[in-house]
Amino acid sequence: QVQLQESGPGLVKPSQTLSLTCTVSGGSITTSPNTWSWIRQPPGKGLEWMGHIIYSGTTRYSPSLKSRTSISADTSKNQFTLQLSSVTPEDTAVYYCARDINWSFDSWGQGTQVTVSS
Fold this sequence. Notes:
Elements (H helix, E strand, L loop, with lengths): L2 E5 L3 E2 L5 E8 L9 E7 L6 E7 L4 E3 L7 E6 L4 E6 L8 E9 L2 E5 L3 E5 L2
Parallel strand pairs: 2-11
Antiparallel strand pairs: 1-3, 3-8, 4-5, 4-9, 5-6, 7-8, 9-10, 9-11
């Protein structure tokens, strides 16, 4: 069974880059047809899909975040990473990593709170 765990700083200052890592166990991130997503939930709002990286390394991003988002993978560590640049307080959210297969999100990390504040 695939398990995911997010890690990274819980506090980021405005204008800085948020960086989170998702460590995957119980399966390889390079196995087809696995796709690995980042999703966030701001306080009082719904879930927002941010982007994903597929098993081959191809990435896709939400149009609203594309200019500030980068997702990459370290296959040697079975991890994938989110970077979100130029953060503002509106980027405060619980951030989740998840596996999706054809847009069915079947495995999730527990989520990590990130607060953007000076």
